Amino acid sequence: MANGSRTAIENRVDVVIVGGGPAGCAAAICCAQAGHTVALLDAEPFPRHRPGESIHPGVLTVLRKLGVDRNVADAGFLRYPGHTVAWGGRPHFQPFGSDEAGPWLGIQVIREEFDAILLRRAEALGVTVLQPCRAESPLLDDDRVVGVTSSGGSVWARFVLDATGGRHWLGRSLGHGVYRASRRLVAYYGYVNAAPKDSPAYPILEANRTGWTWIARLNEGCYAWVKMLFPGVGGRPQLPPLRDAVPLAPMRGSDVTWRLVPESAGPGYFLLGDAASVFDPTSSHGVLRALLSGMKAAHLLDLVLRQVVDETHAIGAFRTWWLDLFEREVANMRNLYAQLPPEWNVDVLSTQV
């Protein structure tokens, strides 16, 4: 990163964003494209490992708007026309669809490379990137968020965007509650080398009585995997059933309980991506949802900064948009888990509020 060693800032900016993943970078890019001054704080240096991500072909339109479609194409990520699903029944292939140009192709990204592409685009547009730089607490003026204290000093801004993920840093700092729409769920993930001849060519999602497993090839012989054990199943998962699988990194776990911070926007702030709501990976488009949340927040705060709409309207519009999205995702995932054989007694759907 051109500014990767920067760890301090003294200037006031229009927007400060905490978190350099897809949601934070999408917001930074759109704010900079609109002519606003932006500082982006990220606690970890790049590259950093995240689970590999299978992204729906619909992301291509979003990538073009962000100006990174050619960069993503040049990165050489694997493309695929669909995925195999064995969800309580016989395996079957689910294509994305097609048109006169041929089949629609998803993208199997390597997250550290994908995130770096987005961050470089933000830097090229003039975003000040402070990395590593850890956000400590929000700066408040009465009930309004007006900036962030960080390991690099205080940053004052018209708007603060939290893209730090499922720990809900800003929401919890402001004392907001978290609504939980499922029992506690943990997804484990990792990377392995495996024999490519005996491994799936396209991403596969397979469920059994203990949980589900997702496997996707990142490149020749390298696979990303995610596994979630159903509630009540003890222990930790085993490596995925790939021939000659050799772990490339320690197994990690992530809390993927379905949850929402209802106050996803308020005076001086917006919550993006997992900072606003979390689902388990079977929702299948977490990166796309993150990108769209950053773009939506950037559009609304741009309207406020240009005095096209008042802030109260923007806050209400974002909260309504995010709540509608959350409710649709919950309904879709409840329907998905309800399709598992009843004799498996999967109780993911039990609500714990």
Task: Explain the overall architecture.
- The structure is a single chain.
- The chain is of the alpha+beta class and 353 residues long.
- The protein has a domain at 13-78 and 111-181 and 258-338: FAD/NAD(P)-binding domain (3-Layer(bba) Sandwich).
- The chain has helices at residues 22-33, 59-66, 69-74, 111-124, 169-173, 286-305, 311-338; strands spanning 13-18, 38-41, 53-55, 78-80, 82-87, 92-95, 98-99, 102-103, 106-109, 128-130, 135-141, 144-150, 153-162, 179-180, 186-193, 204-207, 211-219, 222-229, 246-247, 252-255, 259-260, 265-266, 269-271, 277-278.
- The strands form five sheets. Strands 1, 2, 10, 11, 12, 13, 22 and 23 form an eight-stranded mixed sheet that branches.
- Strand 17 and strand 18 form a beta hairpin.
- Helix 6 (286-305) packs antiparallel against helix 7.
- 42% of the residues are buried.
Instruction: Note the main sheet.
Output: 8 strands, mixed
Q: What radius of gyration results from the CA coordinates? A: 20 Å
Broad structural category: alpha+beta
CATH top level label of the domain at 13-78 and 111-181 and 258-338:
Alpha Beta
What number is the mean pLDDT? Answer: 90
Write the CATH homologous superfamily of the domain at 13-78 and 111-181 and 258-338.
Answer: FAD/NAD(P)-binding domain
